[in-house]
Design brief:
This protein is α/β, with parallel strands linked by helices. It has 12 helices and 11 strands. It folds into 2 domains: 131 residues, no CATH class; 229 residues, Alpha-Beta Complex (Spore Coat Polysaccharide Biosynthesis Protein SpsA, Chain A), CATH 3.90.550. Helix 2 packs parallel to helix 3 and helix 6 packs across helix 11. The protein is globular and about 70 Å long.
């Protein structure tokens, strides 16, 4: 065998090991998620749920309603929009008129001179919740279960040094191919890697689907001002808090997001942005190429001329990958799945390998219809034509 064959064989072995370790971590997470939530302190801390919005998807109204329905006694919702003419404004104002039992506040406009428009909204929004003891950030595409906030606050209050609690998420998608690929990435790539990381290493980052921070941590973040020029603002909430001595915990609450990519170009740009962003802020993410099982199976077949032994090994790896995907979708994330999903996982894996290589060729990303150059330490500079 040549050098490429040995490299492919090493990749195959690493992929087998990863699938086994990630499966154990995922099953452990599923057991934790099945337990009752930890008790909430009495009296319950006042919580401000911060929802910066941009655009209006078909699922937005139901997503926001799930936060109104949260079973928690001391909560208020704060929505942030760039202007009153945004499509989401009518949805928010209609919700405010219906849900009179929950305090709802709306912030219009953004802090100037911030490259990150989401953070520019958050910096204004926190001013509307001066009495809040805990701030919970979540993206617009998130939907939650009624016990979500009790779980998160119980875990945040359980440790004196705990400053941040963040949540993993599962993804649902419609019938469009791009959306299905994106959801499969979340469910069979991102989620298991995050579960494995959470089981074996100290967390120093957070995930944007849900981030709960104590008011003291908000002060460390300069009321989010420390994040105004970075792209991975969720990542840096955890990093800055950890650097200041706070503990970052992974919650047992699993939230749901909606993949709504319309075209394969949307999917490619989205994943390329993620790959380049995490390469910039967490260079260790480059090592994920060693666990791209289908890619290494293909390389093994090509480099060995598809001899019988490599055919058997490649087939075993593909079958293991499919079984692992089925475990994640059905057993761990409790999502419906079909045989076509497992076939699509293999296609998606090869596409993600291509994205990994392309991500090395530049630092330009597209986000919200705008182009940015990623600089050192996660900073971003808008590219204006």
């Amino acid at each position: 065998m040549g050098a490429l064959s040995y490299l492919a064989l090493a990749g195959v072995i690493c992929s087998f090991a990863y699938y086994a370790a990630a499966a154990m971590a995922a099953l452990r997470f599923a057991r934790l998620a099945a337990r009752p939530p930890l008790p909430v302190p009495d009296p319950a801390p006042r919580v401000a749920l911060l929802k910066p919005l941009h655009g209006a998807s078909k699922n937005l109204a139901r997503n926001l309603e799930s936060f109104v329905a949260l079973d928690y006694p001391a909560k208020e919702l704060v929505f942030g929009l760039a202007s009153e003419t945004e499509p989401a404004a009518q949805i928010v104002l209609a919700l405010k008129s219906r849900a009179r039992e929950v305090p709802i506040k709306v912030s219009f406009g953004e802090i100037p001179n911030a490259a990150n428009h989401k953070v520019a909204k958050l910096m204004k929004m926190v001013r509307l919740a001066p009495k809040a003891e805990v701030f919970v950030l979540s993206d617009a595409d998130v939907r939650v279960q009624p016990d979500h906030l009790r779980r998160v606050i119980g875990e945040l209050a359980a440790g004196e040094k705990t400053g941040v609690v963040t949540c993993l998420y599962r993804a649902l998608a419609g019938h469009r191919l791009a959306a299905r690929l994106d959801a499969l990435f979340v469910n069979t790539d991102f989620a298991p890697m995050a579960m494995l990381s959470g089981a074996f290493e100290r967390m120093t980052h957070a995930f944007g689907a849900t981030i709960a921070v104590k008011r003291a941590v908000l002060g460390v973040l300069d009321d989010f001002g420390a994040l105004k020029d970075v792209l991975a603002d969720d990542f840096f909430v955890g990093k800055i808090a950890a650097d200041k001595g706070y503990e970052v915990k992974l919650s047992s609450s699993l939230v749901t997001v909606w993949s709504e990519e319309q075209t394969l170009r949307d999917f490619w740009r989205h994943q390329l942005r993620w790959a380049r962003t995490y390469r910039t802020v967490r260079p260790l993410s480059l090592a994920t190429i060693v666990i791209h099982g289908p890619f290494w199976a293909l390389m093994l077949l090509v480099s060995t001329g598809a001899v019988q032994s490599s055919l058997i090994l490649a087939a075993a790896l593909v079958a293991t990958r499919a079984a692992f995907a089925a475990l994640m979708l059905g057993k761990v994330l409790k999502l419906p799945w079909s045989f076509s999903d497992l076939c699509l996982v293999l296609v998606k894996d090869l596409v993600m390998s291509a994205i990994w290589f392309v991500s090395l060729l530049g630092n330009q990303v597209t986000w919200g219809g705008r182009k940015f150059h990623l600089a050192a330490h996660g900073k971003m500079v808008e590219i204006k034509s």
